[in-house]
Amino acid sequence: MEATRRAVLAAARSSFGSKGYAQTSVEEIAAAARVTKGAVYHHFAGKEALFRAVHAEVEAEALARAFAARDPRRSPIDQIVAMVNGYLDAALDEEIRRITLIDGPALLGLEPEPPADLQAAQEELRAFIATAIERGEIVDVDLDVLTELIGGLALQAGLQIARANDPDVTRAALGQVIEAMLRGLGPRAQQ
Question: Which of 11, 83, 137, 138 fits 32 for a cystine, CB–CB 3.0-4.6 Å?
């Protein structure tokens, strides 16, 4: 049963990532997964439920890439810059871009209820920022607001990449602006 579910998810991810949600049918997904439509509906209530599962998986991958970009030996500001850059680099991936930054917001809105693993990533970022504020490595501002704004900054930049005629050029330009903004969070002595 789990192998069938994984095959359906993989086929759906490939199709949603290359063709988009609207141009993908359950029939195509079933054929690519080498299962019946009934098997797809056994695991997922419908195409939207399947998309939600794929979206959560792909967004978790993008966030994992963001967290993997940080180097714990660097300053908190350097790590935050690296995490946002890691997310934006992930946004250059066609599947991630189409699923999480084009079709995801169109179908689910900009703030779908995140699955538990995504909530855990946000809590990890919040704890990291809290520790840096306590140590004086980041200016002392409202923790929840700052955490939301950093996530929102990454999302908005990702959306700009997704909408761009040339995602690579847009990514490069965004990187410079975002780094300048985030470096402003450092203690006054570092600014």
Answer: 11
Q: Are 83 and 91 in contact (CB under 8 A)?
A: no
Pick the CATH number of 1-44 from 1.10.8.60, 2.130.10.10, 1.10.150.20, 1.10.10.60: 1.10.10.60
The model's pLDDT over 52-108, given as tens digits with 9 standing for 90+, comes to: 999 999 999 999 999 999 999 999 999 999 999 999 999 999 999 999 999 999 998
CA distances in angstroms from 7 to 10, 12, 52, 96, listed in the order given: 5, 8, 16, 18
Domain(s) of CATH 1.10.10.60: residues in the chain: 1-44
CA–CA dist 68, 34 (Å, integer)? 34
Map tokens 């809105």 to a residue. Answer: 109
Which pairs count as long-range contacts for 106-110, CB under 8 Å and 24+ apart, including other chains? 106/21, 107/21, 107/48, 107/51, 108/52, 108/55, 110/155
Q: What is the pLDDT of residues 112-151, one digit of tens each?
A: 566 676 778 888 889 999 999 999 999 999 999 999 899 8
pTM of the model: 0.87
